[in-house]
Predict the structure.
Amino acid sequence: MRRTLPILILAVLVFVAAQVVVAQESMTKLAPAAFGTLTRPPAVFAHDKHNEKAQIAECVVCHHGGADGKQDKSASTEGTPCADCHKVKPEGKNTGLQRAYHKQCIDCHRTKGKGPLACGQCHVR
Ligand code: HEC
Ligand code: HEC
Ligand code: HEC
Ligand code: HEC
């Protein structure tokens, strides 16, 4: 028992980690539950394929950290939903959830001169 318990715990941890990797690999669309019923078709975003094609090596480019109204671009928070920090109905200086997605996605596409800018190119029917 003394030997098998740590192995069991390790097996569970590996299993959980694998689920997370599978989740982001198989992600093709974004439909965060925080919005409730979406008014637009879910935005297309094939997570791993997108980031390979766009040549974004650092996770923190999108998964930043921060608290109390201050963004921390050095703290990586991959796996944490944006909605944990960006509320649908923001208070104070908090960037609202819809604006957070739009600003992150569209600003980069604009800067790079690549990637969709029109509503219907992301919210594909
Ligand atoms: C171009 C932006 C971008 C980059 C770069 C990026 N991600 Fe993500 N990732 C997202 C978005 C957007 C979500 C969805 C977040 C949400 O649910 O609010 C997400 C979700 C995830 C999830 C949760 C999966 C799920 O199904 O809920 C994991 C895990 C993850 N990313 C890991 C990573 C790792 C590891 C890297 C770096 C190798 C990375 N991401 C790079 C944008 C990005
Ligand atoms: C751990 C908390 C946390 C997570 C997770 C998080 N953010 Fe933020 N983010 C912040 C804080 C704090 C700020 C600064 C205050 C503000 O603007 O709300 C910020 C600012 C921003 C800004 C405005 C600053 C700028 O770059 O122009 C955007 C856009 C943004 N976040 C998008 C996102 C997206 C998209 C995700 C998910 C992929 C995400 N954030 C995940 C905490 C977080
Ligand atoms: C840091 C830069 C960056 C961010 C952030 C980013 N993109 Fe992109 N995106 C690109 C680039 C560059 C391309 C063009 C890739 C190519 O075709 O060479 C692209 C292409 C796309 C495409 C075209 C199809 C594809 O997968 O190549 C879609 C759809 C897309 N992005 C959606 C999104 C969404 C939704 C978000 C926000 C969750 C997002 N992007 C965030 C850089 C970015
Ligand atoms: C680069 C991709 C991109 C473009 C371009 C874009 N959006 Fe979005 N939008 C997103 C993402 C990502 C979300 C959050 C995930 C989702 O709702 O699918 C979102 C969320 C939304 C939401 C809140 C969720 C809902 O469906 O109720 C609305 C409303 C919306 N977008 C409208 C628009 C409109 C209108 C335009 C054009 C002016 C537009 N978007 C352009 C990516 C994009």
Remarks:
- The helical segments are 4-26, 47-53, 97-112, 119-122.
- The longest helix spans residues 4-26.
- The longest strand covers residues 65-67.
